[in-house]
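Request: Show me your protein:
***
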Amino acid sequence: MKKIQISPSILSSNFSELGNEIKRLEEGGADMIHVDVMDGHFVPNLTIGPPVIKALRNYSTLPFDVHLMISPVHKYIKDYADAGADIITIHPEATENLEESINLIKKLNKKIGLSLNPDTPIDIIKKFLPLIDLVLIMSVYPGFGGQKFIPKVIDKIKELKNIKEKQNIKFDIEVDGGIDFENSKLVVEAGANILVSGTTIFKNNDGNIKKNIETLKSI
């Protein structure tokens, strides 16, 4: 079984101290930094853009795991690549030509991620699985942090793992949304190897980031 990696979401961090928060995550044992980008259109919220990501690059050597919840996404991919994203994850619904967007991310020498909302079927991305590095399964409806985990996505994780093994394809399975110390066991058993967590990492155990990351990794 692949080692569990933790990608803390800075959506739950103190935005007035973002640089220092990212330093704390790196010191606490995070494997990458999860950056949620929202446009107020594809999802009902607004977060950060390329200039902020570029500024934050100075605070960490960890890979930036950038989840673009924006539409139309294609014309912004290069901006986020140039700003310092290492993994660029997009939603199939957010681009007119998914293959073209995948090829652009590859051309920019970034890792390619595709994200599935709770109601989005795997079939929509199945033919692209050999081309990508990561599938991000949303276990909440994207747009806000702090939501409750949706249990029905467990079956989707299992289905994805089954496809991966049967076709002998290499990609990571990442899960994001309401991940805590209990349900993380379920998603790892189902086949996930990267856990995105915000509230649990920043708020549990009186904000002891190192302890919270270590607990999630030991699941």
User: Anything to note?
Assistant: The first helix runs from residue 18 to 27. The radius of gyration is 16 Å. Residues 5-217 form a domain with the TIM Barrel fold (CATH 3.20.20.70). The mean pLDDT is 95.
